[in-house]
């Protein structure tokens, strides 16, 4: 059993917060504000398991997102507040929103108006990158941060628990190649237990497999990180910073790709 953990964000625009990876970040949640909608059901998801349901409020409309984001940016700008990044994350997978491509366009326009130096970042689990309009929208983001938690099928399915059996490591790696030189691959490192099954994506076998696919994808950057907040599966263990740093060095030396460790 896991913790009865529920959604983190109860609004469409949230923050700004200080992100350990991205700086001063204004968040955009394209999912319901009282439920979760995701194509993964990750053991470590800070927003809890999908079993909590999708809530009652539904997805925010494109126009609602634009109006609320503009109001917040205007308020922050008038107050002289700093902003490093506008980040799409929230209670599930942002690219599932049917108007995601248009919302990205609106966001870039508003960013250019109020905070032209700020970056637009999207945290995605990579399940929707096969839709051309989603892929093109992701390419417009300054930081297109794409999840790949394991290059071994069994481990990926244990950790990420994708809704679709058609989603495989082989397929996602093939899809991620379209972001060569521009995408950022993000990998959660952890170990622990779930339903009596041991999980560890820090073993030599796992790291070698990741190195092979990182080379194949050839992203602009790789981010590796570990647990920061409580998780619905209680028997997960954080990988400490020293070990993460060593893993990062191995990956960077083997691939020649910059690795950011958080």
Give the helix/strand layout.
Elements: E1 13-19, E2 23-29, H1 62-78, E3 85-89, H2 100-114, E4 119-124, H3 132-140, E5 143-147, H4 153-160, H5 169-176, E6 184-188, E7 190-194, E8 197-200, H6 204-217, E9 221-225, E10 236-238, H7 241-255, E11 259-261
Parallel strand pairs: 2-3, 3-4, 4-5, 5-6, 6-9, 9-11
Antiparallel strand pairs: 1-2, 7-8, 7-10
Helix pairs in contact: 1-2, 2-3, 6-7
Cα-based radius of gyration, to the nearest Å:
18 Å
Q: What's the quaternary structure here?
A: single chain
**Widest beta sheet: strand line-up:** 1-2-3-4-5-6-9-11
N-to-C SSE series? EEHEHEHEHHEEEHEEHE
Number of strands: 11
- Main structural class: alpha/beta
Uncertain segments are: none
The overall average pLDDT, rounded, is 95
The span between the termini is: 28 Å
Please report the number of helical segments: 7
Write a compact overview of the structure shown:
The protein is an alpha/beta fold. About 35% of the residues lie in helices and about 20% in strands.
């Amino acid at each position: 059993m896991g913790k009865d953990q529920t959604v983190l964000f109860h609004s469409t625009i949230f923050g700004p917060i200080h992100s350990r990876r991205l700086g001063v970040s204004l968040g955009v949640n394209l999912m319901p504000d009282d439920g979760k909608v995701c194509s993964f059901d990750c053991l470590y998801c800070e927003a809890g398991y999908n079993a909590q349901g999708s809530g009652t409020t539904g997805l925010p409309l494109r126009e609602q997102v634009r109006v609320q984001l503009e109001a917040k940016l205007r308020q922050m700008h008038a107050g002289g507040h700093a902003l490093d990044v506008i980040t799409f994350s929230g209670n599930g997978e942002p690219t599932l929103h049917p108007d995601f491509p248009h919302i990205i366009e609106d966001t870039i326009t508003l960013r250019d108006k109020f905070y032209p130096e700020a970056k637009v970042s999207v945290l995605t689990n990579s399940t929707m990158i096969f839709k051309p309009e989603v892929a093109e929208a992701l390419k417009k983001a300054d930081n297109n941060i794409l999840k790949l938690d394991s290059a071994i099928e069994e481990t990926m399915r244990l950790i990420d628990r994708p809704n679709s059996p058609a989603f495989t490591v082989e397929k996602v790696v093939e899809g991620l190649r379209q972001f060569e030189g521009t995408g950022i691959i993000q990998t959660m490192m952890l170990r622990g237990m779930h339903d009596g099954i041991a999980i560890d994506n820090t073993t030599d076998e796992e790291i070698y497999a990741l190195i092979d696919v990182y080379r194949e994808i050839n992203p602009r950057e790789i981010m590796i990180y570990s647990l920061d907040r409580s998780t619905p599966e209680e028997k997960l263990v954080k990988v400490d910073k020293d070990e993460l740093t060593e893993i990062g060095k191995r990956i960077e030396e083997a691939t020649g790709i910059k690795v950011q460790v958080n």
